[in-house]
# Entry
Amino acid sequence: QVQLVESGGGVVQPGRSLRLSCAASGFTFTTYGFHWVRQAPGKGLDWVAFISDDGSNKYFTASVKGRFSISRDNSKNTVYLQVDSLRTGDTAVYFCARDGGDGFNVFDYWGQGTRVTVSS
Amino acid sequence: EIVMTQSPVTLSVSPGERATLSCRASQSVRYDLAWYQQKPGQAPRLLIYGASTRATGIPARFSGSGSGTEFTLTINSLQSEDFAVYYCQQYKNWPPLTFGGGTKVEI
# Structure
Protein backbone atom coordinates (compact mmCIF):
# COMPACT_ATOMS: atom_id res chain seq x y z
CA GLN A 1 0.00 0.00 0.00
CA VAL A 2 1.04 3.59 -0.54
CA GLN A 3 3.00 5.01 2.36
CA LEU A 4 4.62 8.39 2.89
CA VAL A 5 6.64 8.91 6.06
CA GLU A 6 7.98 12.34 6.95
CA SER A 7 10.82 13.07 9.33
CA GLY A 8 13.24 15.83 10.23
CA GLY A 9 11.03 18.27 12.07
CA GLY A 10 11.93 19.83 15.39
CA VAL A 11 12.28 22.99 17.43
CA VAL A 12 14.67 25.54 15.97
CA GLN A 13 15.55 29.17 16.48
CA PRO A 14 14.65 31.82 13.91
CA GLY A 15 17.18 31.98 11.10
CA ARG A 16 18.21 28.35 11.42
CA SER A 17 17.66 25.49 8.99
CA LEU A 18 16.13 22.03 8.81
CA ARG A 19 15.90 19.33 6.19
CA LEU A 20 12.61 17.51 6.05
CA SER A 21 12.44 14.08 4.45
CA CYS A 22 9.58 12.09 2.98
CA ALA A 23 10.20 8.39 2.42
CA ALA A 24 7.80 6.78 -0.03
CA SER A 25 6.88 3.14 -0.58
CA GLY A 26 4.20 0.96 -2.13
CA PHE A 27 4.22 2.48 -5.63
CA THR A 28 6.56 3.41 -8.48
CA PHE A 29 8.24 6.48 -7.04
CA THR A 30 9.72 7.79 -10.27
CA THR A 31 6.34 8.26 -11.97
CA TYR A 32 4.95 10.76 -9.48
CA GLY A 33 5.48 14.34 -8.47
CA PHE A 34 5.30 15.36 -4.84
CA HIS A 35 4.12 18.31 -2.82
CA TRP A 36 4.73 19.73 0.62
CA VAL A 37 1.72 21.23 2.36
CA ARG A 38 1.84 22.86 5.78
CA GLN A 39 -0.68 23.58 8.49
CA ALA A 40 0.00 26.15 11.18
CA PRO A 41 -1.46 25.41 14.62
CA GLY A 42 -5.23 25.70 14.51
CA LYS A 43 -5.19 26.92 10.91
CA GLY A 44 -6.01 25.63 7.45
CA LEU A 45 -3.93 23.99 4.76
CA ASP A 46 -1.25 25.92 2.89
CA TRP A 47 0.55 24.57 -0.19
CA VAL A 48 4.33 25.06 0.01
CA ALA A 49 6.22 23.38 -2.80
CA PHE A 50 6.14 20.86 -5.65
CA ILE A 51 8.68 18.73 -7.49
CA SER A 52 7.87 16.89 -10.70
CA ASP A 53 8.46 13.20 -11.34
CA ASP A 54 11.82 13.77 -12.99
CA GLY A 55 12.82 16.65 -10.73
CA SER A 56 12.98 19.12 -13.59
CA ASN A 57 10.09 21.31 -12.43
CA LYS A 58 9.97 22.89 -9.00
CA TYR A 59 7.46 25.42 -7.73
CA PHE A 60 7.13 27.28 -4.45
CA THR A 61 4.63 29.48 -2.73
CA ALA A 62 5.73 33.12 -2.69
CA SER A 63 6.44 33.33 1.03
CA VAL A 64 9.14 30.64 0.91
CA LYS A 65 10.85 31.42 -2.39
CA GLY A 66 14.57 31.86 -1.88
CA ARG A 67 14.42 30.23 1.56
CA PHE A 68 13.11 26.72 0.83
CA SER A 69 14.32 24.23 -1.74
CA ILE A 70 12.93 20.87 -2.81
CA SER A 71 14.73 17.84 -4.17
CA ARG A 72 14.33 14.12 -4.63
CA ASP A 73 16.56 11.06 -4.59
CA ASN A 74 15.02 8.41 -6.80
CA SER A 75 17.52 5.81 -5.57
CA LYS A 76 16.15 6.23 -2.05
CA ASN A 77 12.49 6.91 -2.93
CA THR A 78 12.75 10.06 -0.86
CA VAL A 79 11.72 13.68 -1.29
CA TYR A 80 13.39 16.46 0.67
CA LEU A 81 12.40 19.95 1.71
CA GLN A 82 15.34 22.11 2.77
CA VAL A 83 14.01 24.93 4.91
CA ASP A 84 16.45 27.78 5.54
CA SER A 85 16.21 31.17 7.23
CA LEU A 86 13.28 29.94 9.25
CA ARG A 87 10.79 32.43 10.64
CA THR A 88 8.26 32.10 13.43
CA GLY A 89 5.57 32.16 10.73
CA ASP A 90 6.95 28.89 9.34
CA THR A 91 5.82 27.05 12.47
CA ALA A 92 3.51 24.29 11.25
CA VAL A 93 3.02 20.62 10.63
CA TYR A 94 4.57 19.86 7.25
CA PHE A 95 2.86 17.15 5.21
CA CYS A 96 4.32 15.39 2.21
CA ALA A 97 1.69 14.49 -0.38
CA ARG A 98 1.77 12.64 -3.68
CA ASP A 99 0.55 14.43 -6.77
CA GLY A 100 -2.46 12.82 -8.40
CA GLY A 101 -0.83 12.81 -11.84
CA ASP A 102 -2.42 12.89 -15.32
CA GLY A 103 -3.19 16.59 -14.95
CA PHE A 104 -4.92 16.11 -11.63
CA ASN A 105 -2.75 18.22 -9.38
CA VAL A 106 -4.43 17.02 -6.24
CA PHE A 107 -2.96 15.37 -3.17
CA ASP A 108 -4.03 11.75 -3.41
CA TYR A 109 -1.93 10.33 -0.57
CA TRP A 110 -0.52 12.09 2.46
CA GLY A 111 2.05 11.35 5.12
CA GLN A 112 1.33 11.82 8.81
CA GLY A 113 3.29 15.07 8.94
CA THR A 114 6.35 16.35 10.75
CA ARG A 115 6.14 19.28 13.15
CA VAL A 116 8.40 22.32 12.79
CA THR A 117 8.44 24.86 15.59
CA VAL A 118 10.42 28.06 15.12
CA SER A 119 10.98 29.84 18.40
CA SER A 120 13.68 31.75 20.19
CA GLU B 1 -3.68 33.78 -7.28
CA ILE B 2 -7.10 32.15 -7.14
CA VAL B 3 -8.79 32.71 -3.79
CA MET B 4 -11.06 29.95 -2.52
CA THR B 5 -13.84 30.82 -0.06
CA GLN B 6 -15.78 28.20 1.86
CA SER B 7 -19.08 28.58 3.67
CA PRO B 8 -20.26 28.17 6.27
CA VAL B 9 -17.29 28.13 8.59
CA THR B 10 -19.12 25.76 10.91
CA LEU B 11 -22.07 23.53 10.09
CA SER B 12 -24.06 21.86 12.85
CA VAL B 13 -25.79 18.68 11.69
CA SER B 14 -27.38 15.67 13.37
CA PRO B 15 -26.34 12.12 12.49
CA GLY B 16 -28.43 10.79 9.61
CA GLU B 17 -29.03 14.26 8.16
CA ARG B 18 -27.59 15.77 5.00
CA ALA B 19 -24.77 18.30 5.02
CA THR B 20 -24.23 20.76 2.19
CA LEU B 21 -20.90 22.60 2.02
CA SER B 22 -20.08 25.40 -0.40
CA CYS B 23 -16.87 26.53 -2.06
CA ARG B 24 -16.44 29.58 -4.27
CA ALA B 25 -13.48 30.47 -6.47
CA SER B 26 -12.45 34.05 -7.23
CA GLN B 27 -12.25 33.13 -10.92
CA SER B 28 -13.29 30.14 -12.95
CA VAL B 29 -11.47 26.89 -12.22
CA ARG B 30 -13.72 24.94 -14.62
CA TYR B 31 -13.87 21.45 -13.03
CA ASP B 32 -10.40 21.50 -11.44
CA LEU B 33 -11.64 21.33 -7.88
CA ALA B 34 -10.96 18.81 -5.12
CA TRP B 35 -12.38 18.19 -1.65
CA TYR B 36 -10.55 16.82 1.38
CA GLN B 37 -11.60 15.62 4.80
CA GLN B 38 -9.42 16.15 7.86
CA LYS B 39 -10.03 14.73 11.31
CA PRO B 40 -8.22 16.04 14.41
CA GLY B 41 -4.61 14.93 14.59
CA GLN B 42 -4.73 13.29 11.18
CA ALA B 43 -3.59 14.11 7.67
CA PRO B 44 -6.21 15.19 5.18
CA ARG B 45 -7.83 12.59 2.93
CA LEU B 46 -8.79 13.15 -0.69
CA LEU B 47 -12.54 12.75 -1.18
CA ILE B 48 -13.40 14.26 -4.56
CA TYR B 49 -11.46 15.48 -7.60
CA GLY B 50 -12.58 16.84 -10.95
CA ALA B 51 -15.39 18.49 -8.97
CA SER B 52 -17.48 15.30 -8.86
CA THR B 53 -15.32 12.15 -9.08
CA ARG B 54 -14.99 10.22 -5.84
CA ALA B 55 -11.48 9.12 -4.94
CA THR B 56 -10.69 5.47 -4.35
CA GLY B 57 -12.55 4.01 -1.40
CA ILE B 58 -14.76 7.02 -0.73
CA PRO B 59 -18.35 6.08 0.16
CA ALA B 60 -21.17 7.01 -2.20
CA ARG B 61 -22.78 9.26 0.43
CA PHE B 62 -20.13 11.84 -0.51
CA SER B 63 -20.89 13.70 -3.72
CA GLY B 64 -19.49 16.78 -5.39
CA SER B 65 -21.04 19.12 -7.91
CA GLY B 66 -20.50 22.45 -9.60
CA SER B 67 -18.22 24.08 -12.13
CA GLY B 68 -16.64 27.42 -12.84
CA THR B 69 -16.73 29.34 -9.58
CA GLU B 70 -19.40 27.58 -7.50
CA PHE B 71 -19.03 24.12 -6.01
CA THR B 72 -20.86 21.96 -3.48
CA LEU B 73 -19.91 18.97 -1.39
CA THR B 74 -22.93 17.00 -0.18
CA ILE B 75 -22.74 14.37 2.52
CA ASN B 76 -25.91 12.29 2.70
CA SER B 77 -26.98 10.51 5.86
CA LEU B 78 -24.11 11.75 8.01
CA GLN B 79 -22.27 9.08 9.97
CA SER B 80 -20.38 9.67 13.19
CA GLU B 81 -17.06 9.33 11.36
CA ASP B 82 -17.99 12.18 8.98
CA PHE B 83 -17.69 14.88 11.61
CA ALA B 84 -14.51 16.63 10.54
CA VAL B 85 -13.14 19.67 8.72
CA TYR B 86 -13.57 19.78 4.95
CA TYR B 87 -11.38 21.76 2.55
CA CYS B 88 -11.74 22.56 -1.12
CA GLN B 89 -8.70 23.07 -3.37
CA GLN B 90 -8.31 24.39 -6.90
CA TYR B 91 -5.74 23.13 -9.36
CA LYS B 92 -6.75 25.03 -12.50
CA ASN B 93 -4.17 27.81 -12.26
CA TRP B 94 -1.03 27.24 -10.29
CA PRO B 95 1.36 27.84 -8.71
CA PRO B 96 0.12 28.40 -6.16
CA LEU B 97 -2.30 25.61 -5.46
CA THR B 98 -4.88 27.13 -3.13
CA PHE B 99 -7.26 25.86 -0.49
CA GLY B 100 -10.39 27.26 1.03
CA GLY B 101 -10.38 28.08 4.71
CA GLY B 102 -12.35 24.97 5.62
CA THR B 103 -15.79 24.06 6.94
CA LYS B 104 -16.09 22.27 10.25
CA VAL B 105 -18.98 19.80 10.33
CA GLU B 106 -19.98 19.28 13.94
CA ILE B 107 -22.74 17.49 15.78
About this structure: The mean pLDDT of chain B is 97. The interface with chain A takes residues 32, 34, 36, 38, 42-46, 49-50, 55, 87, 89, 91, 94-102 of chain B (CB under 8 Å).
